Amino acid sequence: MTSEMLIFSGVMIIGAFVSSVSQIMLKKSAQKEYPSKIREYLNPLVITAYFLFFGCTFISMYGLKVVPLSLAPALEATGYIFVAVLSYIFLKEKLTLRQIAGMALIAAGILVSSFL
């Protein structure tokens, strides 16, 4: 793997991380009570999360300038790991042994697909 491919792969992983952060923000917002439906959707947390999602699209497109399409889904799968870890940290959700095993399989799959 070339250094340029490593850099752009890192860009795609950063995009997956930012996307995961925005998902956690949306879940945090969904756990709150709002006085009206419009406030539920038009609050700073939700608006920021959707802007982050939008930005992740551009980050992924930028990464795909160099990263082959065959590797992109594997890199995007890091989002599952990020969401689980961030949920554990910020939402106090428990990580089961099954989830940890799943994250290990995802990480192994990413390593295998990146070296083929």
Task: Give descriptors for this structure.
116 residues; mainly alpha; 77% helix; flat
What does this structure look like?
Helix content is about 75%, strand content about 0%. With about 120 residues, it is mainly α. The chain has one domain (about 5-115). Helix 5 (about 80-90) runs antiparallel to helix 6 (about 95-115). It is flat. The termini are close together. The mean pLDDT is about 95.
Structural class based on helices, strands and sheet pairing: mainly alpha
Shape: flat
Roughly what percent helix?
over 70%
Rg measurement, Å: 16 Å
Q: If you average the pLDDT, what whole number results? A: 93
Query: How many domains?
Result: 1
Strand-residue proportion:
under 5%
**Counting H and I runs of at least 4 residues, what is the number of helices?**
6
Distance between the termini: 10 Å
Oligomer status? single chain
Low-confidence stretches: none
The helix/strand order is HHHHHH
Give a count of the beta strands, DSSP E runs of length 2 or more. Answer: 0
Most strands sheet? none
Summarize the structure.
This protein is an all-alpha fold and 116 residues long. It has helices at 3-30, 37-41, 44-63, 72-76, 78-90, 97-114.
